[in-house]
Specification:
2 domains; 289 residues; Helicase, Ruva Protein, domain 3; N-terminal domain of MutM-like DNA repair proteins; 7 helices; 4-stranded antiparallel beta sheet
Length: 289
C-alpha cells in the first residue's frame, strides 16, 4: 500500500494539472471501488474548480469550489496518470498495465486528462462537505503529520508512554502518527538504531517525557520521509508518479527487503526478517537495540 512519500509524490504531480482548473467532465467507468462511488458524484464534481490539492496522512484531498472536499485513497494498487500515455518501468513485482482498470477519468478545463487506475479496486473516492471534514470518520482519528511541527519527541514520547506494544506497532498506529507504513518504519528504526521489538514505552520516562531515543527516532522518521519524497517514493509493485515514471527510493533501502544481506552500518551483523502482527519486519539484531 502506498505510504506517505508515495501519496505526497502523487499530490505534487497532480497539483499543476488540477489546481485552479475546472472539472469539465467526469467519467465514472466503475463505481465499485472499496466503497461504491456515490450516484451523484458526477453532478457534484462537474463544473467545479479545484481550489487546492492537499494530503492528510495517506489520503489526497481536493478542495472544490462548491465547498465539497474530494477525499481519495490509492488503496493497494491505485495510481493516477496525466494524459493517455505512461512511461514503462521495471517494478519489483510485475503489475497490471491494462487500461481496463481505468475507473475514473477527470477532464479538466486546461486540457489535462487525469485517469485513476486501480486493478484491485481497494482505493476510494468520497465527497465530504468542507464544514464536516473534521468529523469525517476516515480522517477524524488520525494523529499528527510526521513532517509537521506537531510531531516532535515530546509528542511521540507522550503518545507511547505506558504502551506495552512494540515500538514498530506504535509507529504504525495511525492514531499515534499519521501516514507511516511498513517500509518507512523499518527504515527509520534502522537509522535510529532502535529495535522494532523494543517496548514503545521505553522512549519516555515515567512522567512521559522524551529521552534520547525519542529525539533520535523523530529525527530519523523525518529524514527518511524527506529522502523518500525527494526520490519520488518507492516503486515495488504499483506506485508510479503521475507521468508514469517510477519512484527511486527502493534502490536505497538499507534494511527493507534485504534479509540475509550484511548490515549496511558495517557492524558485521546480518539483516533479519521477522513477522510482527502479520507484517514483515527487517532489521539488524546486532546494532538495533
Amino acid at each position: 500500500m502506498p505510504e506517505l512519500p508515495e501519496v505526497e509524490t502523487v499530490r505534487r504531480g497532480l497539483a499543476p494539472a488540477m489546481e485552479g482548473a475546472r472539472v469539465d467532465k467526469v467519467e465514472v467507468r466503475h463505481r465499485g471501488l472499496r466503497w461504491p462511488i456515490a450516484r451523484d458524484f458526477e453532478k457534484r464534481v462537474e463544473g467545479k474548480t479545484v481550489d487546492g490539492l492537499g494530503r492528510r496522512a495517506k489520503y489526497l484531498t481536493a478542495d472544490l469550489s462548491s465547498g465539497d472536499v474530494l477525499v481519495m485513497h490509492l488503496g493497494m494498487s491505485g495510481s493516477f496518470r496525466i494524459g493517455k500515455d505512461a512511461k514503462p518501468g521495471v517494478y519489483y513485482h510485475e503489475k497490471s498495465k491494462s487500461t481496463a482498470h481505468d475507473h475514473v477519468v477527470f477532464h479538466m478545463s486546461n486540457g489535462q486528462t487525469i485517469t485513476y487506475n486501480d486493478p484491485r479496486r481497494f482505493g476510494s473516492m468520497k465527497l465530504v462537505p468542507r464544514s464536516n471534514i473534521d468529523q469525517e470518520p476516515l480522517l477524524r482519528g488520525l494523529g499528527p503529520e510526521p513532517l509537521g511541527n506537531a510531531f516532535d519527541a515530546a509528542m511521540l514520547a507522550q503518545a507511547c508512554a505506558g504502551k506495552k506494544t512494540s515500538l514498530k506497532a506504535a509507529l504504525l498506529d495511525q492514531r499515534v502518527v499519521a501516514g507511516l507504513g511498513n517500509i518507512y518504519v523499518c527504515e527509520a528504526l534502522f537509522r535510529a538504531r532502535l529495535s522494532p521489538k523494543r517496548r514503545a514505552s521505553t522512549i519516555a520516562d515515567r512522567a512521559g517525557r522524551p529521552n534520547e531515543r525519542a529525539e533520535v527516532l523523530v529525527t530519523a522518521v523525518k529524514a527518511v520521509l524527506n529522502d523518500a519524497i525527494k526520490a519520488g517514493g518507492s516503486s515495488l509493485r504499483d506506485h508510479r508518479r503521475t507521468d508514469g515514471s517510477l519512484g527511486d527510493f527502493q534502490h536505497t533501502f538499507l534494511v527493507y527487503d534485504r534479509e540475509g544481506k550484511p548490515c549496511p552500518a558495517g557492524c558485521k551483523g546480518t539483516v533479519k526478517r521477522i513477522v510482527q502482527a502479520g507484517r514483515s519486519t527487517f532489521y539488524c539484531p546486532s546494532c538495533q537495540k
